[in-house]
Amino acid sequence: MHSAHTNQVSQKQQGSSASALAPTLSAELQQQFSCMLSDCPYGLEQPAMYHQAAFTRMSHNTMGDLLANGYRRNGNYMYTMQCPHCALCVSIRLDPHRLQLNRNQRRVLQKNKDIVVQQAPLAMSERSLSLLDKFLQIRFGNERSQAQSYYSHFFITTISTCFELRYWAGSDLVGIAIVDAAPGWLNAIYFYFDPDQGWRSPGTFNILNLAAFCRERKIPWLYLGYWIDGISEMDYKKAFRPHELLVAGRWQPGV
Fold this sequence. Notes:
Blueprint: H1 2-13, E1 20-21, H2 27-30, E2 34-38, E3 48-54, H3 60-68, E4 72-74, E5 77-81, E6 89-94, H4 103-111, E7 116-121, H5 126-140, H6 146-155, E8 162-169, E9 172-182, E10 185-193, H7 202-216, E11 222-228, H8 235-238, E12 243-247, E13 250-253
Parallel strand pairs: 10-11
Antiparallel strand pairs: 1-13, 2-3, 3-5, 4-5, 6-11, 6-12, 7-8, 8-9, 9-10, 12-13
């Protein structure tokens, strides 16, 4: 399944002059990483292999190079998936300045025209923890104890400039985006929302807002994490066009 998917993407991209090679990582940086075997975080049967390293500080340029090589941030760890029998985790990014909205995305903007966006420092407030608890419990069936752990082990970091974008509809907190940002990139870490506000298509609205945030600040790349073929919850990421997928070390136009 993995090989067929990779070959399919590669074949569709052959001959494209728009592809770009991921930047070369220094040997010194690569030596800090090691592999850890685990269960697949996306529920697939194949074992997962994390290629990861912990850091206490990192320059914007180094993190930008890692993001461009498909790495993600989890707390103070940077990791990518190097699973022995699967390569379904494909990194996806947008050039916010080239984004072309489809009819549904324009409709989502209209549904959310009442939203006020508040940029704020990352904070484990009682209200944000309560909202994340509700989101995890209803959307994924997780226990309430998970929310504080998400902040303390996943969101909070010393290696990047991390903050929240809070989405308000009057006094209602609709959702919170956790992002890392630098002049050369914006990294979407996590987004959670009030499940009662699902009619707004908040996941789509969040990416539209992140793209607008990047355009206002002339940030060239918006990294959306992984897209996995066959996982319906991730399909909305590919609806943002044009997008790029990282295949065999090269960023290629999505299909």
